[in-house]
Each structure stands twice: as structure tokens, then as C-alpha cells.
Amino acid sequence: MKTYYALCGGQTPLNRVVMAGSHDAGITGGKWYARTQKHDIKHQAKAGVRMFDLRIAAATGSGSTGGVKNAELRAYHADGAAKSTETKTRFVQELGRSVALDRSSIRMGAFGETLGDMLGQAKAFVEKHTTEFLILKFDKCLNWELVAEACVTLLGNSIYKGGGNINKMTLDQLKGKVICAFTPTGLTAIGNNFTAADGIVGITNLNGGPPWRDAYDGIQYYGKGGTSLMGLRAKTENRKKQTKLMLAGINSHPEAMGMMYWTTTGLLGSIKARNDRMWKASQRVSLVRTWNNGLRASIDSQLNGLQDPFDAGGALLKTFMPNFVMIDFADSDKCDLILDLNTVGAQELARVAKHDVELEDSL
Fold first, then answer.
1. Could you give the count of Cα atoms lying within 13 Å of 10 in the half-sphere of its Cβ?
2. How far out from the chain centre does Cα 168 lie?
3. Residue spans of alpha helices (H) in the chain
4. Cβ-count burial 276-312 (b if 16+ within 10 Å, e if not)
5. Which residue from 130, 131, 129 is spatially nearest to 10, judged by alpha carbons?
6. What pLDDT does 297 receive?
């Protein structure tokens, strides 16, 4: 198994690493318009995924416990209009007790893996591969406080409790840990019940969001995913959107992390079929070029007429770059291509040092 630690080194800050991210990571089943992944968290992590996009809701479980019907915290994939909720008292296995929660039902979507299974697999991965880390990005969840409690309880000593600006943390500081990052909505929902000291940090998008904060417990990124649900040319639409976003990202803080989506989610046609076409040889070249365009523009902006991309002390200047490449149907073949972008980034910076900022068409 290839590792980011071996390729990038333990002293490398997270915001200098390019890594694969799994879009709707827990949706391994469902119909053609909902399913986004083939493998579970364990096998995605082994393939090279380090960022997992998770949306959690409470689904009806089978049977009952102590006379109370069971519910399961599960990944879900559904448009907001296709999801309905009602407050019920249910026994939640991940928590081992009955609670009042918002139970959801879904139309035109799917429930996926249970949160308990996903957390267990994440914990087992970092315990076995002690130089690696995983990031669980929780977004658009229901029952936020229950999700936080499950993360803290089930991950135990494997949850990251260091807090601080994770963008700047080195791989040595993050190794062996699972980072549980909640979007601003989630942090607001849990209030002070769970904090960075417990293992719940933030993740915020600087694209249309708050400005960069150096004193921030969590991850700050720039980007946005998704294609229109009824789009007829999803690949073209996504490529144009991501190129525009990554170029716009150079105006964000240089320490921010870029998040680029190489996905074609929509309601017309199979997500899997579109994704397969997106990963043909010609489209792989397009991915690298889209990624590299963002890096090149960022380098040009950072240099701003300077002749050398190094400061007076010899340290490489930090540039905004697409750090997270979010994909559907993650596997080792796709992740290896993304892992290799760490080398592309180093080569591109070397070209700038030699006053050669032209990209090779062969990339």
C-alpha cells in the first residue's frame, strides 16, 4: 500500500499534500442515481483516500430493544426535497441507549453504511497503518450531537484531540489519528457539548464563507463541488466549474487548502457510467491539467514578479493548491493518479525556480 507519509515526509504540513477524497463516501448501495462508491471505508482508505465526505441521518432499524424501536445512524445521499424527517424516540446502537431524534425517510436517494461501521473501520485503519491519518468531513447531517457523541465514543484514543490550525499541522502531528471535522452548521448545533478537546473540530469553506483565521481549530479550504442535477454534459460542466474555482482560490489565503471535485453526480443517467467515462485516458489528462492550472496560476500570483519561489531563509513559499481531489467510486487506480500529483506539484515548483512556468502538454 502506498502511503502519503512515505511520499511526502513526516515534516510536511497537511496543506502541502495532495490527497484523494471520497465524495458521499458511505453510499456503497442504492440505485443508479444515488450510489457513489463501490468500496467501504476500510478499502477506500487502503486504496489511498484520506478525506471522507459523510452525510449522516437516522434511518429505521430492524427490531427493537427494551420495547423501543431501533434506529441506525447511516450515511445518506438525497436531495433535500426528497428527504422527510419526524421526531421519534429510538434505541441507537452506536450510543447504546434510547434517545429522541429526527428519523428520516428518503425518496430518490439512498441510505448507506452505518456510522458505527464506518468509525470502526477508520479506527482500525489508523491503528494498523500508524503513519497515516484520515479526515471525516461531516456535512448536511441530522442529529449532529448524536453524531459527535458516536465519533468521540467509538473512536476512543484514535480521535484527533490536538485542535489548532490543522492546515499547518505536519503529518507527524496527525499520524495515527482520525480527524472528525464538522461544518459550521454542525458546530453551531452541538454548541459547547463537544469541542476540539473532545475530538470535534471545524471545517469551513472560505468560498463565500468567513475569512481565513489563523487561530482556528480545524481545516479551512476553498472550493465547491457538484453539477446540476439535470445537466446533460456533466463532465464538461464540472471541468469548467472546477477550473474557475481553483483559479479563484488564488485570491484566498495561501495557507488555505483547495478542494477540487472530479465528480458528475446527477439524476440523468447512471453516476457509475458517467464516472467510468470520466476516468478514460483522455479525461485523466484533463484532470491533471485542471489541477495543474490552479497550481500554476497560484504560483504566478505568489511570485508576483519575484525571480525565486523561496524566501530569504530558503523556505519554499506556500501557494494555494488543490489539496483535496474528491472522487466517486474510489479505488487504488484513481487514488494512485492523485497521489502522484504530489510529485507533479514539486516538479512544477522546480520549473518556476528555473524561470520556466510553462506546463508540458504531455501532463
1. 6
2. 17
3. 4-8, 41-47, 115-128, 144-155, 171-174, 184-190, 234-248, 271-278, 281-303, 332-339, 341-353
4. eebbeeeeeebbbebbbbbbbbbbeebbeeeeebeee
5. 131
6. 66
CA-to-CA separations, 115 to 76, 111, 289, 357, in angstroms, rounded: 10, 11, 36, 45
Longest dimension (CA), the chain: 73
pLDDT tens for 130-174 read 999 999 999 999 999 999 999 999 999 999 999 999 999 999 999
Q: In sequence order, which residues have a C-beta less than 8 Å from that of residue 208 and are 6 or more positions away?
A: none
Residue 196: what pLDDT? Answer: 98
Residue 14 has pLDDT above 80, yes or no: yes
Q: Are 349 and 18 in contact (CB under 8 A)?
A: no
Comparing CA positions, the residue from 270, 235, 233 lying closest to residue 34 is: 270
Local confidence band at 8 (pLDDT 50, 70, 90 cut-offs) = very high
Q: What per-residue string of b and e applies to 66-91 under the rule 16 or more CB within 10 Å gives b?
A: eeebbbbbbbbbbeeeebeeeeeebb
The CA distances from residue 261 to 121, 132, 228, 342, in Å, are 24, 23, 13, 17
**What's the CA gap between 303 and 311, in Å, rounded?**
10
Measured between its terminal Cα atoms, the distance across the chain in Å is 24
CB-count exposure of residue 212 (10 Å: 0-12, 13-18, 19+): middle
The reported pTM is 0.87
d(CA 66, CA 87): 19
Burial of 3 (C-beta count, 10 Å sphere; 0-12/13-18/19+): middle
Q: Which amino acid is at 13?
A: P
* Per-residue pLDDT tens digits for 224-234: 765 554 444 55
In angstroms, rounded to a whole number, what is the distance separating the alpha carbons of residues 318 and 168?
A: 11
Dist CA 103 CA 83 (whole Å):
10
Closest CA to 305 of 253, 255, 357: 357
In the block, residue with C-alpha cell 507519509: 5
